[in-house]
């Protein structure tokens, strides 16, 4: 009997994780990740907050952008409350403000993220694209990051802590395939650009399949590889214990509908880092070369202090 988790079960678990529960008028609860340890993944909080905002809108408008600020790190094992403010409801646009809060160890409810999302009723308009999809190898020709992580863990051996090894090898609901080296793959400084294909590891369950969920899944996946782009010119990595970092904010513009269970190309670059921060941008394309979303993020990025 194989110990390899069933991809369909892992994806179903992610869908359940991103399905928020309504507790009262404009108050939703997000479940914690089963078996999660340490700090909550930022993409999870952004995606759950978006789901709460989408639930308050209805079917007449769709999210076209979100802007989020991470205030403090959430902790695994505790649910997160999402409280909605209905700032604006117009004929074409609507706006929702979401405060994500979590109880700390003494029972005090503290904000961990603020998110504002804007929604628009679909309409026709002027179109242009000045952002062609980069030419990279198709995902079928690339090794999965899961395979690459296993090889890296074997290579590092005792050089990794048990926590680092667990984080690197845990099953992931997003299948990612990189056409060039990410920060953890080697220690050679290189240009601040990366290109990664991603999709859910199995099709989205039919009973949960809707465009709002796919936007939330893309928001979840958009937090992978992004901050690490700022580490590439320095040849340093969190996986090797050389850096400390955390996302400070996260912005997504949704340009067109897309399925998260079909291959999407995430092209990221980092035009600047300094002052303990790194700025990163991302463009997400479908297989037809259409730009489906744009992403921007600034994060705290510092060299780890020597234990000696």
What do these coordinates show?
With 308 residues, the protein is of the alpha+beta class. 18% of the residues lie in helices and 35% in strands. The protein contains 5 helices and 13 strands. The protein has helices at 7-17, 42-55, 145-156, 162-169, 211-221; strands spanning 21-24, 27-30, 62-70, 80-89, 93-103, 109-120, 174-178, 193-200, 243-247, 249-254, 264-274, 277-286, 291-303. Strands 1, 2, 3, 4, 5, 6, 7, 8, 9, 10, 11, 12 and 13 form a 13-stranded antiparallel beta sheet that branches. Strand 4 and strand 5 (93-103) form a beta hairpin. Helix 2 (42-55) packs antiparallel against helix 5. The longest helix has 14 residues, at 42-55. The chain is globular. 35% of the residues are buried.
Q: Brief overview, please?
A:
This protein is of the alpha+beta class. It has helices spanning 7-17, 42-55, 145-156, 162-169, 211-221; strands spanning 21-24, 27-30, 62-70, 80-89, 93-103, 109-120, 174-178, 193-200, 243-247, 249-254, 264-274, 277-286, 291-303. The N and C termini lie far apart (46 Å).
Strand fraction equals 35-45%
Number of strands: 13
Helix percent reads 10-25%
Radius of gyration: 19 Å
Shape: globular
Write the element-wise H/E pattern from the N-terminal end onward.
HEEHEEEEHHEEHEEEEE
Q: What structural class do you assign from the helix and strand content?
A: alpha+beta
Kindly report how far apart the N and C termini lie.
Answer: 46 Å
């Amino acid at each position: 009997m194989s110990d390899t988790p069933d991809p369909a079960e892992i994806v179903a678990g992610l869908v359940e994780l991103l399905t928020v529960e309504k507790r009262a008028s404009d108050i939703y609860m997000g479940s914690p990740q089963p078996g999660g340890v340490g700090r909550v993944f930022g993409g999870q909080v952004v995606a759950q907050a978006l789901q709460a905002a989408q639930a308050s809108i209805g079917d007449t408008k769709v999210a076209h952008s979100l802007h989020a600020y991470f205030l403090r790190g959430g902790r695994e094992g505790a649910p997160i409350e999402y409280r909605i403010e209905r700032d604006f409801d117009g004929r074409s646009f609507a706006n929702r403000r979401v405060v994500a809060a979590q109880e700390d160890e003494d029972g005090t409810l503290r904000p961990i993220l603020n998110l504002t999302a804007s929604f628009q009723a679909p309409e026709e308009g002027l179109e242009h694209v000045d952002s062609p999809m980069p030419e990279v190898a198709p995902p079928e020709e690339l090794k999965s990051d899961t395979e690459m992580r296993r090889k890296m863990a074997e290579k590092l051996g005792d050089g990794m802590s048990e926590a680092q090894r667990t984080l690197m090898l845990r099953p992931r609901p997003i299948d990612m395939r990189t056409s060039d080296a990410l920060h953890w793959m080697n220690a050679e400084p290189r240009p601040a650009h990366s290109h990664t294909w991603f999709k859910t590891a199995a099709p989205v369950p039919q009973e949960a399949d809707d465009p709002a969920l796919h936007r939330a899944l893309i928001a979840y996946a958009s937090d992978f590889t992004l901050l690490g782009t700022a580490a590439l010119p320095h040849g340093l990595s969190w996986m090797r214990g050389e850096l400390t970092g955390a996302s400070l904010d996260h912005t997504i513009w949704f340009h067109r509908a897309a399925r998260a269970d079909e291959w999407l190309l995430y092209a990221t670059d980092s035009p600047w880092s300094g002052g303990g921060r790194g700025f990163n941008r991302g463009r997400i394309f479908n297989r037809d070369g259409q730009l489906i979303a744009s992403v921007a993020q600034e994060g705290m990025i510092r060299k780890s202090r020597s234990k000696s």
